[in-house]
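Q: I'm writing up a methods section and want to include an example of the input and output format. Could you take the sequence below and give the corresponding predicted structure tokens, formatted cleanly so I can copy it straight into the document?
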Amino acid sequence: MAREDRTRITHRPEQKTPLSRLRTAYHGYPLRTRLVGGLAVVTAAAVLAYLAAFPVLIAITIAVAALSLFAALMRSSDAVATALVSLVWLVLAYVLFQIPIPVADSPVLLLLPLITLLVSLLATRITAFPAWHTTLLALLVGLIAGLAVALAGLLTDTVAPAAGVVVCAAAAGAALGWRAIAGYRLRSGMRPATRPRTRTRAPGPDPVRATGRAAPRPPAAAPPRAHPAAGAPPRTAMSRTPSRSTRPWPGWRA
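A: Here is the clean output for your methods example:
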């Protein structure tokens, strides 16, 4: 007798990629240890730049950007995209705002990293859309509005060019607010419509328990009246008299 073919299901353990192993090892350390390690890396980059006669500020900026990308990579791919968008926007905004803003007002450009950080953090709270997309939209709106005000101040002297950075922050915040409202409306539209609740009548008191007597029964319905069949002659008074065959005999006594 031939053996029956039986399929055997084997559960293979999931193979972790090198990136997932690195993320597991990274999150295995507490936050305090990771912060101390990042500070040590920035300090080492500053010391090496000073010894090599390289601009220390640029070295610190590069080290912080590299650590930000690494921390985002250890979180998710969406975080990496958000970090890249923020870094590219920061470099572009710093270069463009240097055109209308004079050197005397250049310290106001230090607000640009703060704007980028706040926008990226608030974009992660809007879960209806990707964080990198919200960050890109808000930063672009802020850059366009702020640069327009700074250039207008440079050409017309009606407003200080440094006010463009403040307008940039305000426009980015307005874009984030509009994005949050759009996300709320989107989530509200995706929720299933709730059915209206039907009101149930409260049960009234039992008449038997209240009076001690049983409730009267409804009168029985009268039996249906028989109708003559179609085509039959109507019954008259003569037809109700008994026929001869049914009359009693003359000699019959009751």
